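Subject: for your reference before the review

Hello V.,

The reviewers asked for a structural picture of the protein, and I figured it would be easier to keep everything in one thread rather than splitting it across files. Below is the amino acid sequence we used in the manuscript, unchanged from the supplementary table.
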Amino acid sequence: MFAAGATLLIALTTPLDLRAPDLPHQALVPTGEALAQSPWALNVNLRSRLLGESGALRRDRWLAQAATQVRTDATPPPAGAPGAAPSCDEGSAEGPCTVDRTDYNDLRASEATARYTLRRRRASLTTHRAFALAAWGSFLVTEVFGTLQALNQPTWFGDGACRTMSGCVGGDFASHFTDLHAVFAFTTVGLYTTAGVIAVTTADPDRESEGPSTHASTLRLHKILAWVHAGGMIALPILGLLTTRPTLILGDNATSDEIQSYTRTMRSLHMMVGYTTFAAFTFAGALEIF
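And here is what came back from the structure prediction:
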């Protein structure tokens, strides 16, 4: 539990590499050459490992969506007419290009919405990563105590070292492995569930996992692995309960041989599902961090 808490504290204090740098004022006003190239392109320079190049380009388009809709819904006045935007040709006597105040306000409102969404997504991903790392640390300790239990008790891979009390791995302390395993298992499930809820509710306006890019493929693999370890996290507590409470399935009239065979089977299944879930969880986390 202390290891999980320490891991959570470290993760919360570690900055997530998802930055939206502050822009100079002139970058917010599309004038001159920038306006001539694309009247509604807002180059917010969002580049990070998590967004990727293609994600940043999609976000640029998303930022300009509201202002683009305003322009397409209204027919612009002809050149030279009152209210028309001045020419942006090289050497124009009109000076730098300007934007109608209404359109400029739309641009700023669109950007403000995008920046708010990005800040909220950044905060959610930071919190998600913190709880996920804490869950991984608690899961690791759970696996250690579970492995010690498997070494001491009968499984498909052996009769266990505790056939004689003197042979138990851990000696006299071996009797506490079950309780410690259960405590860290409950801690892991709580941290994991919190991280999962945050991940599911995090805004993703760019649909980052779509497209042929390497970044999108990595996110798709991350989601597939998430389904695998989520299923394992659901199965593990159930298998653990059935292992420690054989009468739930066998009934009160089961013989000792039936109970021993049943617990051996359920303990083996619990161990293999645990290793598979931990491997999928570790690989998914490595994809996100590295």
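For the response letter, the relevant points are probably these. Residues 15-55, 69-75 have pLDDT under 50 and may be disordered. The longest helix spans residues 101-152.

Happy to draft the paragraph if you're swamped.

O.
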